[in-house]
Structures are given as structure tokens and as C-alpha cells.
Amino acid sequence: MHFAICSSHFSYLNTPNFPPFITLLFNLSLFPLFSSAFFPPFKRKEETMVVHSQSAALDHCSLIKTCKPTTSVFKGIPVVDLRDPEAKNLIVKTCEEYGFFKLVNHGVPMEFFTRLEAEALKFFNLPQSDKDKAGPPDPFGYGFKKIGSNGDVGWVEYLLLNTNPQITSLKSLTVFRETPEIFRSSAVNDYIQAVKRMTFEVVELLADGLKIEPRDALSRLLRDEKSDSCFRLNHYPPCPELQALGGRNLIGFGEHTDPQIISVLRSNNTSGLQICLRDKTWVSVPPDQTSFFINVGDALQVMTNGRLRSVRHRVLAESMRSRVSMIYFGGPPLSEKIAPLASLMAKGEESLYEEFTWWEYKTSAYKSRLGDYRLGLFEKKTGGAAGQ
Fold it and tell me: Residue 94: phi, psi to the nearest 5?
């Protein structure tokens, strides 16, 4: 087994030459689930991503985790049409069976996808010295390779952002004050606002399908002015070194579940995303740049008392093509108590989990490794919880 170097960092953009889009990105910053510390940066592709010998390639990747090739492509990805009259029931069914589905006919303009992706690539293609001005994370901004502070690494660089304008860092206030026009019309803001509206609709349909009362029991947490929702842009550079790894795949982002209520992912047309089925089989998800992929998060698993299960997933690096993904993580306010919803509990049914606040869960997750079963710490010992 090989392991790789990886890192993540954030910093304040306070240079007159920095692109306005990037200034916006780092001042919409998210409080990341896994805070990141400084690590030696990605160098430009032409400097280090292309190597000239097998031994050099292996040395360059020697700390990044690899895995055996997975040739199985999941042809049974559940698909939900948001305009289907049966959408509420289909969403429940797919979340119960897989914790994951593809959403089509979602209403988010394709223009928002392409514009944000183009702007993101402009940033990720900047010289490393320019990107470093946005790091290390504190905890907002740019990071790469290192994922959290507990040794997890991957072949990835990323931007971590906050989607709640009510929650800003001190460094953000300067940009809000000096360049307010950026926030009225931008690739980032247009995309996030459209995805938020769509996500509210999805979780309300889910509530309808589950017969949760009130109908906005989930969506109100995401709409709350103190919502701890997040947005992340991931970039997985091409990795020609893969040919020197004896057929093994390089991990871009290691296996994990998302802690929030729901995750909404869109990527370009490059493969790499994999999910773990209930039988522990890893399968590749065919890319679809026009659709969204929806994940059940840990918080939703608890709120449904294990009826819906968060899905384990990971991303593998490609040898010749870069992958860009954008993920909205719908999270509750930090003070929100997470527990099974009363309207979902049958008479006499016991909760499988101890009650906790979202802040407590985030704090616990920060102390864990990426692949740990984090909910295990919050399961009732005698309740027969759903398990990993």
C-alpha cells in the first residue's frame, strides 16, 4: 500500500492583482469540515506533475494512498426526475437503498455550471505562487493534498467556502466593504443560490415522501440565517505518474461519508467518483456534467433514525484528464440538536443515537480520520444501531 503527501490551506486575498472571482471565492469561505494546515504546495503541472522516469514518479507519489483498480461501473445509478409526479417517493426509495441518486431536470441553468467551472479552472491554473496567496487556511480559502490535520492526504487541491452571508470572517469584511458589487452578480453566487433553491425543493419532497411533519422540518435548517452550509470546489490534476504505479489507482480524495444533512455534487465530464454499495463493493459512477448527484449525510441518517443511510464515497485520480467538482453541503446551525424526528418514530421505537448538537458532531469529526465511522461515537450502546 502506498501513501501520498497532500494538504489544504486558506488565506486572505489582499492583493490588487488578484482576480475578482477569486477574491469572492475566499470571502464566501466555508468553515471546512476538515480544517487544513500548511503543506508544501502543488507545483505547476509543467514543473512537477509530469515526470521523466518511473522511479521519479514513484518517489513523487510515495505518500499518496493507492488502491486496486475498480473496473465495475455502476450501471444501476438511480435517477430521479425532479419534475416527476412520483419524485417524492423515488427520492425516499433511492435514499433508503443507496443513500445516493442522480437528479435530472433540476432547473439549474447549464450556463451556471459552465461559467463557474471556467472561473474555477482559471484559478487552479494560476502559478502556484498566486494560489499560495489564498493559503494556508485559517480556516477559509485554498488548500491542497492534505485533508484535515490527522494524516489524510489525496491528489487534490480545493477551495472551501461558506454559503451563508451572515457568517463571515474578519478578513472577509474588508472585501465585502470595498468590493460589494462582486457579490451582486458572480459565477459563485449565481450557482450557489440556484443550487440552494433546488436543494430546498429536494429535501421538502423527501419530507413529503417520508410524511415528515412539518414539511419544512429539514429545509428550515438549510434556510436558517445561521445555517452552517458549505461549498467546495475540488480540482484533481492529471497524474501521469499513475502509469508507474503498477496498475494501481491513486486516491484523489479518500473514502468517507459526508457529515451534513445532504450533499449536492456536480462535476465535469471526467470520471473518478466511486460509491460503496451495501455489500461493500466499490463501483464507479459514470460522469454526467449536466446532472447533480445527491448524497445522504450523517446528520440525515440520525434524523431518520437509520432509515436513510449516509453513503461512503471516494474519488480516484485520472492519468491524463483533470476533474473539477463543485459540492454544496447542506448543514444545520451549529447549535441545532440532531436527533430522530418525532414524526418518523413509530410508537415505542427507540432512538439509535444519543442526541448531540451539530457543533459537537463537527468537533468530533475534526478529531477523526477521514475514513472513520464517526457516528459510532454517538450510537446508543444498547440500541442496536445501524452500524457502519
Answer: -70, -35
Pick from 234, 262, 386, 261: nearest CA to 318: 234
Task: Point out the catalytic residue in the list 115, 323, 369, 374.
Answer: 323
Bridge partners of 273, per DSSP, are 315
Question: Tell me: the pLDDT tens digits for 89-138?
Answer: 999 999 999 999 999 999 999 999 999 998 888 888 888 877 777 666 66
The class of domain 65-377 in CATH terms is mainly beta
C-alpha torsion 136→137→138→140, nearest 10: 140
Confidence (pLDDT) at 205:
98
Whole-Å CA distances, 220 to 56, 75, 223, 296: 52, 34, 5, 17
Grid coordinates belonging to 238: 492529471
pTM, rounded to two decimals: 0.82
CA distance linking residue 25 with residue 368, whole number of Å: 27
Reduced to 3 states (helix: H, G, I; strand: E, B; else coil), residue 20 is helix
Q: Is 323 a catalytic residue?
A: yes
Residue 316 sits at φ, ψ, to 5 deg, of: -105, 150
pLDDT digits (tens, 9 = 90+) for 275-289: 999 999 999 999 999
HSE-up (13 A, CA, CB side) for residue 144: 17
Residues sharing a CB contact under 8 Å with residue 33, sequence separation 6 or more, in sequence order: 230, 258, 259, 260, 329, 362, 365, 366
Distance CA(16)–CA(7), nearest Å, equals 26
